[in-house]
Amino acid sequence: MTSTTLFQPIAARPAPINTEGPVAWVKTNLLSDWKTSLSTVIIGGLLLWFIPQILSWAVFKATWIPNYNACHVNPAGACWGLIAEKYRIIIFGRYPYEEQWRPLIATILLTGLLVLSCMRAFWKAWLPILWVVVFSLFFMLMYGNVLGMEKVETDRWGGLPLTILLSSVSLVLCFPIALVVALGRRSNLPAIRTFCTIYVELIRGVPLISVLFMASFMFPLFMPPGTNIDVLIRVLVGITLFAAAYMAEVIRGGLQAIPKGQVEAAATLGLSYWQTQRMIVLPQALAMVVPGIMNNFISTFKDTSLVTIVSLYELTGALKLGVNSDANWRPFIIEGYLFIAMIYFIFCFSMSRYSHWIEKQVNKSKLR
């Protein structure tokens, strides 16, 4: 007896949901459920209310010419004429007017070096040599006293060149210090572990403004008579040590996340302590804490604004110096702060996006 098998077609399945494109992004991020949709409507309504008013103040009714009388006549709009009038003192601080081409070239060189250093194609053995060359050119241009250039003391440096110098030097120097301190806090030697712990807790227990005050005013009191260390160097040391203490804790968090079994396996293979750290532990630990490291970088970049208390006029200090000394422009200082905020945002947002790219690179191995 033979059995007959009847063919029963399978019902068609629904088409896969499109997860790419602007429409899919809106559905996923703005309209995924009723709570998200309600929040989107409320926030969208507020934006529709405020954005036209902001555009009216900042663009359509704004005064662009560098004339304070025109700004006083038109109080309903922003006075961007302040930027047109005071941009050189905001960007370059108290640097001599005729010599401001020097900090301009120095800033372009240093910024270009930072951009090149973020590109994988330039991660070569000669990159550290390029750093030394560019920093030498930077200080030669800023300080002068060579090749017929006028000598300009460091207390007259200011504006954007000083901000980029303080942030780049402190970040470059604080990373190796933080790495050593993080390893020292996990050392089996009590003396090293105690010293590193005291350093971290002491620095983290006080605000940066106190560190800068001590470096600028208190430290010279402990030096031998006649010994004078430049205030810029003292500030750089203070910012570097402060940033290193915070970054050491970030790196230590990554070190603690590495399973102990990997270290034991490395020991059974005969690897030394430094070989284990260099080839197994540190690559994984640093990859885990990329967001924390970049957050520390961004925080340090913004904290450079505190050096105004020691009479170094970076961006915010240069703005106050240029506007407060001129009563005609003083009522429009808010526009100056918005201009500086835009500069800080460009740099910080760039660092944030670069951090996002680094995270994608280090996570490629996990996607295999």
Structure in words:
The protein has 368 residues and is mainly alpha-helical. It folds into 2 domains: 244 residues, MetI-like (MetI-like fold, Orthogonal Bundle); 52 residues. 67% of the residues lie in helices and 1% in strands. It contains 15 helices and 1 strand. Helix 4 crosses helix 14 and helix 10 packs antiparallel against helix 13. The radius of gyration is 28 Å and the shape is flat. The two termini are 54 Å apart.
What does the overall shape look like?
flat
Largest sheet: none
Instruction: Please work out how many helical segments DSSP would assign.
Output: 15
How large is the radius of gyration?
28 Å
In whole angstroms, the N-to-C terminal distance is 54 Å
Q: TL;DR?
A:
The chain has helices at 22-29, 34-60, 68-73, 81-92, 101-117, 127-143, 159-185, 190-204, 208-218, 231-256, 260-268, 273-288, 290-303, 315-324, 333-362, and one strand at residues 313-314.
